[in-house]
Write a structure and sequence with these properties.
71% helix, disordered N terminus, Serine Threonine Protein Phosphatase 5, Tetratricopeptide repeat, mainly alpha, two-stranded antiparallel ribbon, 397 residues, 2 domains
């Protein structure tokens, strides 16, 4: 039986003891909560999902899904509240961790050794206030005569040493393992953030490189190749101006394809020329078909594999050929490089719709609409917005 001390004999528990007791209780609560809520599987599933994330947009989406699960967020807090309240009220003012370190909770007036339910609940809830500002509420005990934290002052409690012999070795083992677990999980989070930042930076760099490379293709070409490329550009302009005259388009495009092949004979590793040729095969002509165009865009991707626009064009070709599974694979690669490009979202939505994967189709139609509506100040994207709206309506039927 523990003998009561006079006020002058009371020794207040220091920061080290209380921290180790806190780690022990944290370990016990973590195990209990994990078993009770089956959160081991949830955490494993979360880590698996995090490993697949390649952009901030995907991470924000996962955060939204997680934050919407109010039950899983509140239950650990409730379990913690019950644990600390029951132990300090019914087990002589001490949790398991506090008992191992031979400390206990008392009212700060030392009038009795009994902690009430109200005091325990107020102290437990106000401990979140102590933790909120970088843990300053806990460190407040260091310069306080009675070694009170903010939540001790709010609840009018103190933590004191008892006459029992502390079992530091057991506490160090349990608390040490839990601290290692916290450090490991924090390290995983930091590494994930660093990798996500690097991925975002790489995507921005790739996007800027793609935009730069498609802004003036002729810069890196020889004079002869650049001349033929520019002639091909002129042919495309002429074809767009005569869209209602297929006979004229056929004649122009035959010349277009011929001049592009001449350019490729001079510069066969030029991804831009292959891309241009693949585009030419989508117009009416006598020189080839969509299969030839597919081969051309594959060549373009071979020479420039990290170009989001080329990957988008490859996905478009697979859609034209009704190879929707392959189209989705290529369009996903494009989105990993640039997840904001509305045309890619529109194409992958179409592919998912054709396969009957309606939830994914809806998601990408919505992304496409968001992209084009933000850019439609002058009405330039009215037609493509209408296309996306019609696709979305069809999927929602």
């Amino acid at each position: 039986m523990e003998i009561k001390k006079s006020i002058s004999d009371i020794k207040y528990a220091g920061f080290g003891r209380r921290l180790l007791a806190f780690l022990v209780d944290g370990a016990i609560l973590n195990v209990f909560t994990s078993v009770f809520t089956n959160s081991w599987k949830t955490q494993a599933n979360m880590l698996e999902q995090l490993s697949k994330i390649n952009s901030m947009a995907e991470f924000e989406k996962l955060q939204t899904i997680t934050s919407n699960n109010n039950y899983s967020n509140l239950l650990p807090i409730l379990i913690s509240l019950i644990y600390f309240t029951v132990f300090v009220v019914h087990y002589d003012g001490a949790t398991i961790g506090m008992r191992l370190l031979a400390i206990k909770l008392l009212p700060d007036d030392k009038s009795n050794n009994k902690i009430s339910y109200l005091t325990a609940i107020v102290r437990n809830l106000s401990s979140y206030l102590s933790a909120m500002v970088f843990g300053l509420g806990y460190f407040a005990m260091i310069r306080n005569k009675q070694k009170q934290t903010w939540h001790d002052k709010i609840a009018k409690t103190v933590v004191v040493q008892t006459d029992r012999k502390p079992k530091r070795a057991i506490a160090l083992i349990i608390g040490g393992f839990f601290l290692l677990f916290i450090i490991t999980m924090s390290s995983i989070g930091i590494l994930f953030s660093i990798n996500l930042y690097k991925n975002e930076k790489t995507k921005i760099e790739n996007k800027e490189a793609n935009q730069e490379s498609f802004s003036d293709f002729s810069n890196d070409m020889s004079e002869e190749v650049a001349t033929k490329y520019q002639l091909s550009q002129d042919y495309f302009t002429q074809m767009k101006a005569t869209q209602d005259e297929p006979t004229k388009i056929r004649k122009i495009n035959n010349q277009n394809i011929s001049i592009l092949w001449e350019a490729l004979e001079l510069d066969p590793d030029n991804s831009i020329l292959w891309f241009q040729l693949s585009s030419a095969y989508t117009w009416v002509n006598d020189k080839g078909n969509l299969e030839d165009g597919l081969d051309a865009i594959k060549k373009a991707n071979e020479f420039d594999p990290d170009n989001a626009i080329l990957l988008y064009q490859l996905g478009e070709y697979y859609i034209r050929l009704e190879q929707y599974d392959q189209a989705i694979l290529e369009l996903k690669k494009s989105l990993r490089l640039d997840d904001e490009y509305g045309y890619t979202h529109l194409s992958i939505a179409n592919a998912y719709q054709q396969l009957g994967v309606n939830n994914n189709a809806i998601e990408h139609y919505q992304q496409a609409l968001k992209y084009f509506e933000n850019k439609n100040q002058d009405g330039d994207f009215d037609m493509v917005i209408l296309t996306a709206q019609k696709g979305l309506a069809a999927v929602n039927k």
